[in-house]
């Protein structure tokens, strides 16, 4: 894997760069990493010193790009179904901006834990439904903008409740001045 310096690039604003740095920090030096869906971001191509990256996505177009650019293995798969991997396969599972799109979020989190090796990490992000911008909109009687196609909405408390059903060691932090994103890390003990 190439060692990329992160700087402002086309399409990467400050918040996206901070989120990418968060993912990059926990990917560094990993032997075996599973990236759950890449869509337009292709964060894994910026990870340093990852020996093997497997990418899961439902869209063949994104999988072709991932395979051409950085992934050792790509798998077309619906994240609403059990993950097609053996237990204890990966050191890291990266899930950026995924859980808010799923009906069966608990199933995916449980599956992530199953495919993680001991001391492995699930690293992810999701929009914060209680961010300052949306609170201000409520204050003035406006319904906040809802980012579609999101079907689940998280604040820090709701996210922690969901993650701690499956992981004992969970940390969550806010991203951005307006606290627009939640970044999380869960460790399999």
Q: Which strands sit side by side, in order, in the main sheet?
A: 3-2-1-4-5-7-6
The domain count comes to 1
Give the count of helical stretches: 5
Number of strands: 7
Shape: globular
CATH superfamily: Vaccinia Virus protein VP39
**Poorly predicted segments:** none
How do the SSEs run, as a string of H and E?
A: HEEHEEHEHHEE
How much beta, percentage-wise? Answer: 25-35%
CATH architecture, by name, is 3-Layer(aba) Sandwich
CATH fold-level name = Rossmann fold
What's the end-to-end separation, in Å? Answer: 28 Å
Helix/sheet category: alpha/beta
- Helix percent reads 25-40%
CATH class: Alpha Beta
Mean pLDDT: 87
Biggest β-sheet: count, sense, barrel? 7 strands, mixed
Gyration radius over CA = 16 Å
Q: Could you walk me through the main structural features you see in this protein, from its secondary elements to its overall organization?
A:
With 189 residues, the protein is α/β, with parallel strands linked by helices. It has a single domain (14-187), classed as 3-Layer(aba) Sandwich (Rossmann fold). 27% of the residues lie in helices and 25% in strands. It has a seven-stranded mixed sheet with strand order 3-2-1-4-5-7-6, with helices on both faces. A hairpin with a 5-residue loop joins strand 6 (169-175) and strand 7 (181-187). It is globular and about 50 Å long. The two termini are 28 Å apart. The mean pLDDT is 87.
Please tag this protein with its features.
7-stranded mixed beta sheet, 5 helices, globular, single chain, 7 strands
